[in-house]
Recover the amino acids of this structure.
């Protein structure tokens, strides 16, 4: 900020002296500096990107990067729903996400064959799987354990083969399932690759905490503003805007 103010004072002084060439140069330099600063912020790398690269390229590194919790962290209501590397965080700007619409959840990359790494319910609630959903389920939690005055949902997706031909969701929850009660730790399915557009991704499950509309229905999870920071629910630092230590551990 001091540099900008100093440059602005120099610009005004040059302008008063009628030196338009130098004034124009100052404007260009200020613009370049601003563009570089904004660009670095806009395209900043995920804090987990280097370790995610290790996870994908070097299977021998996976034991040191994995987070495996069989129970919720102390003083946290939610169970981490799968085992693996928590490799893409909430509020992440890494493309295809941006600061305007960051990553609205958390991705957990499992160690194993596609369709074999289990995904469990993070908390008690009522499960719905819309008729068209090949890879996703959503669970309604009538009373948010951190704010009982509101209802929230937990959303789980990518539980299918790349082409969508094979769903890895548990047979207990066929397409069209509505409001089926599940307990925390219930097997929901297995990590997969499905994105809906045939783009290739590493095997993982995407999990998010979703707000309700006034009528009680779930909001569009792909819009960041419709989701909540999952960190306090899981007792883990899962927000890319905060200092993250890898692998993530109970706080």
């Amino acid at each position: 900020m001091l540099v900008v103010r100093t440059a602005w004072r120099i610009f005004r002084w040059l302008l008063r002296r009628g030196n338009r060439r130098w004034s124009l140069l100052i404007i260009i330099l200020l613009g370049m500096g601003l563009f570089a600063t904004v660009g670095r912020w806009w395209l900043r790398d995920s804090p987990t990107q280097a370790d995610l690269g290790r996870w994908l390229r070097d299977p021998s590194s996976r034991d040191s990067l994995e987070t495996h919790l069989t129970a919720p962290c102390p003083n946290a209501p939610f169970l981490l729903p799968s085992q693996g590397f928590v490799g893409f965080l909430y509020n992440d700007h890494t493309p295809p996400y941006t600061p305007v619409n960051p990553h609205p959840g958390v991705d957990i990359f499992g160690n194993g064959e596609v369709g074999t790494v289990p995904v469990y319910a993070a908390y008690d609630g009522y499960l719905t799987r819309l008729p068209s959903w090949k890879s996703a389920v959503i669970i309604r939690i009538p009373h948010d354990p951190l704010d009982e005055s509101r209802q929230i949902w937990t959303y789980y997706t990518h539980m299918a083969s790349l082409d969508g031909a094979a769903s890895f969701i548990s047979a207990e929850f066929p397409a069209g399932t509505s409001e089926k009660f599940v307990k925390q730790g219930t097997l929901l399915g297995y990590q997969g690759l499905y994105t809906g557009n045939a783009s290739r991704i590493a095997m993982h499950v995407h999990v998010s905490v979703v707000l309700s509309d006034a009528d009680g229905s779930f909001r569009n999870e792909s819009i960041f503003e419709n989701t909540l920071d999952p960190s306090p629910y899981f007792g883990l630092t899962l927000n890319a805007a905060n200092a993250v230590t890898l692998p993530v551990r109970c706080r």
Q: What stands out?
A: DSSP finds five helices and ten strands in the chain.
